[in-house]
Amino acid sequence: MIIDLDIRITQTPDGYRVTAQAPDSGLAEAKLDYDALTAPEFQEKLAQVREEPFTTDQALFREIGDLLFRALFRGQVQDLFFALFSQRVQGEENASLRLRLNVHDNALDLATLPWEFMHHQDVFLATQVNTLLTRQLLNLNYGGIESLKVQGLPKTLIAIPQVGGLDTAKEEQVVVQALAAAQMPYRVLKGRVTRQFLDDALAEEPYAILHFIGHGAFDEDEDGVMHGRLRLNAAGEDLPPGEDEDWINEVELQSLLGNHRSLKLVVLNGCEVGEVSQRPEGEGFWGVAPALLRAGIPAVVAMQYPIRDDVAIQFAETFYRRLCTGQWAGHVDFAVTLARNACFLAFPDDRGFATPVLYLRSKDGVIFDIAPASAASVVSIPCPDAPKPPERLLYRYRNADAATLIDRYRLLDGRLQRILRQIDGLAVDVTGPDAWRLRRYERNRDKLERELDEMADVLRWRAVEACQELGALRSRLAEKEAARDALEDAGEYVSYDLKNAIFTLHERILALEDMLEEIEATLHPAG
User: Fold this and answer.
1) pLDDT grade, residue 492 (50/70/90)?
2) In the predicted model, what is the mean pLDDT of residues 459-485?
């Protein structure tokens, strides 16, 4: 179960206003502690993190993170965060609170703060799956996206322009190994990668993921305007050293990628490509990440600081392993969070764990299904036949998993049975206080029956979806087990990744089978 907490920061005549709201909560408001964020002491700490050559002091990260948390979560906003976290996330094995940070363009200096350092109760929130941290940009006209999900396993294009000073070979190796282990299709585009070469490659196949490994920059042009740029290779043959580079700015990048609508995720391992500034016209955000969002890319991972090669490699390896396999397969926000945590564990005194920023503009972070979409590969199993409930019902219960719905249904059904017994204990033609009590019982009965009927419709639909997923997973399990058996029969080594994939599929299949049994027992109890 994922609970979205939308946090918005906007400028008002008397300072900066923070609002927060969950799907089933009222609007919480508070005033941002802007004075603390602009205090010289705090700005000096930020400058130290920005300017240090990658390595600094973990205690400094905690100080910055504690102040960022206290400045943002105040008053009603703090109360709502604590209530959601303590009552609905802590103690729940599969519950997560997704913090969706939205910054208006009239609060540019706040959009550039490293919120990924936020620290509370001895942990950095952006490294924990129970406090997923994603960003959005308010007042950025990029349209709405319902879902990132694509059919089948997504194709990945890895673009590695010819550059110096970067360990691109190692990062290429770890990304390719992770994709290959999950049997996800990919193509490596390296050597002299020009604008035309990249555009041609994206046009040849419907790639869902673009991973860029190379140089980035965020600097001023001759007119004093800040620009985010990526370094590609210049067109032409036999160019002398120093001239084989083509710095493509955000406007050109938006034009290049805007025509390739199959792209769902862009991962940019380039220095400073996550930074933003104000547009020259004075409205909206400026930078590589905003340009990609305007181009229609639903999810962008970019670096807000220069990142060390070994940290970048750690991030890429963990990100793709978590994105491609295991219980969070397909979830971009979980993969980024777990990759940040891996960087923190491996390099605790390096700012690299808080360097990746995830911009996510969808109702969930799922980019693909675990099972391929090919109908021929899906095992045919009998599934319940139920109509899809109205969208308003699906939206109302979107954050509740099947177990939560079942518990709620049983609780309400118990209340209904008690009310029915109370009604049966009263005469039909009662008068006085008993008549008033009867009317109250009947109103409560009608309300509970309506809610139970709606929940039953949602549960039946969840059973349909679970059954369909179950068939696809059984088919994929059969393929994996056949591959394992073939290796064993040939006396060859069975990789850990293949064994882990089989185990993960078994676990998910058992969970789905248990869910279907629970739904059936709830809606059609024995006796």
Assistant:
1) confident
2) 86
Tell whether 275 and 354 lie within a shared domain.
yes
pLDDT at 60: 92
Distances, alpha carbon 55 to alpha carbons 25, 52, 72, 261, 517, in Å:
41, 6, 26, 39, 53
**CA distances to 483, 485, 494, 497 from 490, in Å:** 11, 8, 10, 18
**Kind of pairing, strands 186-191 and 156-161?**
parallel
Which among 274, 282, 227 has a CA at the least distance from the CA of 106?
282
Instruction: Please tell me the distance from the alpha carbon of residue 131 to that of residue 84, in angstroms, as a whole number.
Output: 11
One-character DSSP codes across 6-66:
EEEEEEETTEEEEEEE-TTS--EEEE--HHHHHSHHHHHHHHHHHHSSSB--HHHHHHHHH
Q: From 357, 285, 289, select the one nearest 140 (Cα to Cα).
A: 285
- Packed helices 402-424 and 496-523: angle between N→C axes, nearest 10 degrees: 10
pLDDT band with cut points at 50, 70 and 90 for residue 36 = very high
Of 90, 108, 137, which closes a domain? 137
Neighbours of 439 (CB within 10 A): 11
Boundaries of domain holding 271: 156-369
Burial class of residue 225 (count of CB atoms within 10 Å of its CB; 0-12, 13-18, 19+): middle
Q: Are the C-beta atoms of residues 489 and 467 closer than 8 Å to each other? A: no
pLDDT digits (tens, 9 = 90+) for 37-73: 999 999 999 998 888 766 678 899 999 999 999 999 9
Please report, to the nearest 10 degrees, the dihedral formed by the alpha carbons of residues 189, 190, 194, 197 taken in order. Answer: -30
Query: 3-state DSSP: the chain helix, strand, coil percent, rounded to 5?
Result: 50, 20, 35
Torsions phi, psi of 63, nearest 5? -60, -45
Residue 436 has pLDDT above 70, yes or no: yes
Mean pLDDT (whole number) for 101-117: 85
Q: Do both 346 and 406 map to the same domain?
A: no
Same domain membership, residue 295 and residue 257: yes
3-state secondary structure at position 497: helix
In this structure, is the dihedral angle defined by the CA atoms of residues 247, 253, 257 and 259, taken in order, positive or negative?
negative
CB 281 within 8 A of CB 271: no
Pairing type for strands 119-120 and 299-303 reads unpaired
Q: What gap in Å lies between CA 144 and CA 60, rounded to an integer?
A: 38
Q: Which of 338, 369, 400 finishes a domain?
A: 369
Burial 101-127 (b: 16+ CB within 10 A, else e): bbbbbebbebbbbbbbbbbbeebbbbb
The first and second tokens of residue 509, run together, are 């299949």
pLDDT at 284 over 50: no
